[in-house]
Specification:
Order of helices and strands: HHEEHHE
Shape: elongated
Strand order of the largest sheet: 1-2-3
Bound molecules: zinc ion
Distance between the termini: 40 Å
Number of domains: 1
Largest sheet: 3 strands, antiparallel
Structural class: mainly alpha
Helix content: 40-55%
Radius of gyration: 16 Å
């Protein structure tokens, strides 16, 4: 059984809070921040991320990056840098979108 597009966008939280359609490509969400907004490709209205959700992803991710590089400096920088960044990217894709106030 194939996964419907709506299921896929639900997992990655790409559905628009206005029209419930997929509103942006996956990669574009990685560059979305609460201070910016993107227009939904289906209905054209603005969507953004909530500050509280964004900080719940970014702050622990940056702390993990600092801790890994402070205490596991013997490990390749490639690994200690890549793991937190990948974690931030995956978690950011799971954040729900919200309607832009403007
Ligand atoms: Zn929309």
């Amino acid at each position: 059984m194939a996964v419907a597009p709506s299921k896929r966008s639900l997992m990655l939280r790409l559905s628009c809070p206005h029209c419930e359609q997929a509103c942006m490509p996956t990669l574009q969400k990685l560059f979305l921040a609460p201070s910016s907004s993107i227009n939904c490709k289906s209905c054209g209205r603005g969507v953004t991320l909530r500050w509280s959700h964004y900080l719940l992803v970014v702050v622990p991710g940056v702390l993990l990056l600092v801790v890994l590089n402070r205490y596991f400096a013997g490990i390749e920088l490639f690994i200690t840098g890549l793991v937190p960044v990948l974690l931030i990217c995956i978690l950011q894709l799971m954040l729900p979108l919200q309607k832009d106030r403007f």
